[in-house]
Amino acid sequence: MAVLPMTIPSRLDELMPDIPGSVFNSAFRLACERLDGFVGALSVELAAELGLGTGEVPPVESLADQRGWKNEGALSLRWLLETLELYGEAERRGDGWRLRGGTPPASSAQLRAEGEFALPATRPAYEVFTLSANALPGILKGQLRGEDALFGPAAMGLWFDYFSNANPHYAPNNQVTALAVERAVGPGARVLEVGGGGGSAALALLDALAKEHKTPSNYVFTELQPAFLRRGVRAIQQVLPGGCDLRSFRYDIDVDPAAQGVEAGQFDAVFGVNTLHLAREVIGTLQRLRALLRPGGVLVVGELLRPTPTAAVHLELPFTLLTTYCQAPLEEGIRVRPGFMSVSGWRRALEAAGFTKISILPAEIERCSEIYPGFYCGAITARA
Q1: For 207-233, how does the pLDDT look when each residue is reduced to its tens digit (9 = 90+)?
Q2: How far is CA 137 from CA 30, 50, 63, 102, 324, in A?
């Protein structure tokens, strides 16, 4: 496994001529480098808190059995060991690991303070990781549920801030997806967004379309969680261009669209940002979305993409605490481990669902990931 560099190589720019420089800008690079250091220190501290120490550590399942830890925390435990490896703090030994057990040069608290001072807008990312790390011991002991720790009433405002275009860590997810949709449609498009969250992806897309004078005729905003749905609708209404009709309702990607009142063949574009990897059956969900598109319509899948089908993702901790993320069924060659998928997995799934003309933005994302294993942000476009 490649070790994550603490400085993002400048030659990444040469691999992204298809992405405006304003997306992965200097603020984004600084934000990533600061957060990378924080996550590395946090993982070392978390391992020490869990009593992993130094020396040999057995495979995750055996380790959990030895400690009496619950299965609900198994994916998070795997994340911890793989992340230590990614930072050079552990190495594989057969099915297990050998931990160095060193002390980070600076504490995670110090690195967080420095990171937030340098870029105050990055506070939500640090807070989400801190909240997740604090919750993990209780989840392993069966004293706490990840959903309660991360999405309780007191934490909802944090997630609105995290999934925001003001957050330098998250904004590129929306911007790259918006670029892909904008480049694929013309003026007057009928657009459906699935899993729209608090509306930040919609805001990015409407802005991208406005800059190219491509006002959509219809924008259908959907989200399963009611609080996010309400928040998203309010945000969109503030920027909705004249001549564009807005509809909104709850929508479940795992359920037949017709049963939810959505007619087939009516959209020019369907898209979602960091939503479709949660599908219970990836190919089936993609087939249902394809049926909603007119002939030649486009699906854009904006996702955090694994560098390889089984690669570690050092920013994955919060999601590994959630049941829906951990229990997504595996599909050979498509989703070979729970959660986020690779470019090759998405290609196979889209082809199996009947899509054609599959492309990715940035086109060289897999080479980018080879240079910097923390490069995850991409959008996959496919035609019905």
Answers
A1: 999 999 999 999 999 999 999 999 999
A2: 30, 7, 14, 20, 19
